[in-house]
Amino acid sequence: MKIKSIKIEKLYGKYDIEWKLREGVNIIAGDNGSYKSTLLRILASICEPGKVSDDFDVKGVTMAMTDNTLIKFRSFKDSLLRLKKDAEEDELLSELAAKIKADIEGKDDNSLSDHTLNASIIVIKQGDKTLAVSNYKKLRRYNLISTFDVPAGKDKGSVLDQQLEKLESEYAYYLSDLTKQITTRIQQNGQVNMKDLEDINAHNNTFIGIINKAFANTNKTVDTTQSKLQFKLGEDLLESNKRLSAGEKQFLIVMLTVLLQRKEESILIMDEPEISMHLDWQRTLIENIQTLNPNCQIIIATHSPGVIMDGWEQLVENMSSLIKES
């Protein structure tokens, strides 16, 4: 499941945004303060889905996805009388009114006008069928990466370290699963041939090749004898991945995230992923993502010319073309 389009009504009570997305690569550029990051955060909140932050002061969001799925979010900040009247012509407000039916029924207009409501509702439909949030989450797969290296709090290291530690744990399970696949082949066939091993390890070997090539200038390589993600610096083991640079951590976070999508149809939302990355890594970022998962919908907000080199510039959308005053 991928995103086809998004429409945001009255962002900060003032702006409307409409964006039609490609199933492959989507890149947004624009000045600081042009709401690039805000757009990505709203996309992610609908993918989750969760309540769109009150900080955005958004009236409504409509997001169309593949598989004939439509997600609608609506906020309401007004009197119960206004809700009762608007619900007659607004499907989402009608559902919101139904949820607080006991607060509206039997009340006269004066009473309803004296009571205000600050609430929101989200409705997910696949064709004519309403989907529960839990079922929608099973159908879509998405990741949000915002890799700014800032402190996570007292004695908690950096945000990058926390993100990388979580992904390292998931990667260890991934390696364990590969071992189980090999064991299953041996149990079934009495042996495992070289082609079976190559097929089972192909995706991980592609990942290792990308990382080793990127880290070659600093003489770091992935130690493939380990059951976790560990690096060698020359011939010596690197005792902790926390010793990697911020750019190396950012690169690893992106590549691990995509690897762990396991080539499934996925959505990858990234806010300025290039920060601290070497220019060569920026130039090959999209290509490496597509190599690891050709089924990934890539959505990037960037300031970097490096990311959009090598032909990607034709896919760039400027925020000024997506946003207008209501």
Note the topology:
Layout: E1 3-11, E2 15-20, E3 25-29, H1 36-47, E4 60-65, E5 69-79, H2 80-86, H3 91-99, H4 101-104, H5 109-113, E6 116-126, E7 129-131, H6 133-139, E8 142-145, H7 159-189, H8 194-215, E9 220-222, E10 231-233, E11 236-237, H9 246-259, E12 266-271, H10 279-292, E13 296-301, E14 316-318, H11 319-322, E15 323-325
Descriptive notes:
With 326 residues, the protein is of the alpha/beta class. 40% of the residues lie in helices and 25% in strands. It contains eleven helices and 15 strands. It has helices at residues 36-47, 80-86, 91-99, 101-104, 109-113, 133-139, 159-189, 194-215, 246-259, 279-292, 319-322; strands spanning 3-11, 15-20, 25-29, 60-65, 69-79, 116-126, 129-131, 142-145, 220-222, 231-233, 236-237, 266-271, 296-301, 316-318, 323-325. Strand 12, helix 10 and strand 13 form a beta-alpha-beta unit. The chain is elongated and about 80 Å long.
Output the keywords:
7-stranded antiparallel β-sheet; about 40% helix; 5-stranded parallel β-sheet; elongated; about 325 residues; alpha/beta
